[in-house]
Automatic annotation (TrEMBL):
The keyword Transcription regulation applies. Keywords: DNA-binding, Repressor, Transcription, Transcription regulation. The lineage of its organism: Bacteria, Pseudomonadati, Pseudomonadota, Gammaproteobacteria, Enterobacterales. It comes from Leclercia barmai. PANTHER family: GLYCEROL-3-PHOSPHATE REGULON REPRESSOR, HTH-TYPE TRANSCRIPTIONAL REGULATOR SRLR-RELATED. Residues 3-58 form the HTH deoR-type domain. The keyword Magnesium does not apply. This is DeoR/GlpR transcriptional regulator. It comes from the Bacteria. PROSITE patterns: HTH_DEOR_1 (PS00894), HTH_DEOR_2 (PS51000).
């Protein structure tokens, strides 16, 4: 079997099963594990998968630039964002992560909803200017241009001074085994800091994030309380997530 053919079969297996194991592939294709690891390494370099210990998971498509991500699965993002708004109660302190799905959340807010928003996203802060009943606290720090959010020690210091009711966490991958992941190390640190200061953490999971992984771990699924997904999300994935103690809300 040609290398190209083997790689294609690996990708097909990854798509159908949600993960692949190096040892299993080695036995199936009757090649060494070193050969399989090389295949996985090359596929990962092309952005086709995310390598993990012992094998690989589907790579998240949600790690491109903010401008590119803003056009990715926009209808699905709107649906989960509209459902997410229903989780906000008047008078709450709500932390809102940066990201294209949380941007849709802000766009879906009713004009008469009154709460305090805490964010490290200048874009979300500016969008909330159109909501006069929402008090806005903008967390400062170094601007991370890829995601248009602030990061660094100053941002974490600001976050640690707040007790919030809700945190809407942005992720690029959510997987029952690989956990919550994102594409940048510092962003992962910021997300953990936010989650640690909120009574409840919610992930708005549009389809491109489900059952995928990115290089940097935010934490396992015990870090969150609720995930909002589309109604037709794979039932096996939903069952796995619920089995880990996370509530699943369908949009």
């Amino acid at each position: 079997m040609l290398t190209r053919q083997r790689k294609q079969l690996i990708l097909e297996k990854l798509s159908s099963e949600g993960q692949v194991l190096s040892k299993t592939l080695s036995l199936e294709f009757q090649v060494s594990e070193d050969t399989i690891r090389r295949d996985l390494r090359e596929l990962a370099a092309d952005g086709r998968l995310q390598r993990v210990h012992g094998g690989a998971l589907p790579a998240s498509k949600a790690v491109s630039s903010f401008a590119e991500r803003s056009h990715l699965g926009i209808d699905a993002k709107k649906r989960v964002a509209q459902k997410g708004v229903e989780l906000i109660s008047p008078g709450q302190i709500v932390m809102i992560d940066g990201g294209t799905t949380t941007t849709e959340l802000v766009r879906c807010l009713p004009a008469d909803l009154s709460f305090t928003a805490v964010t490290h996203s200048p874009g979300i802060a500016l969008a909330l200017v159109e909501h006069p009943r929402v008090e806005v606290i903008l967390i400062g720090g170094r601007l991370f241009r890829h995601s248009v959010v602030t990061v660094g020690a100053a941002a974490i210091e600001g976050i640690e001074r707040i007790h919030a009711d809700l945190f809407f966490m942005g992720v690029t991958g959510i997987h029952p085994e690989a956990g919550l992941t994102t594409g940048d190390y510092e962003e992962a640190c910021i997300k953990r800091a936010f989650s640690g200061r909120a009574a409840e953490t919610v992930v708005l999971a549009s389809p491109e994030k489900i059952n995928t992984a990115s290089p940097f771990l935010i934490g396992d699924l015990s870090l969150i309380n609720t995930v909002v997904v589309e109604d037709d999300t794979d039932s096996r994935w939903v069952e796995a997530v619920v089995g880990l103690g996370v509530s699943v809300v369908k949009a």
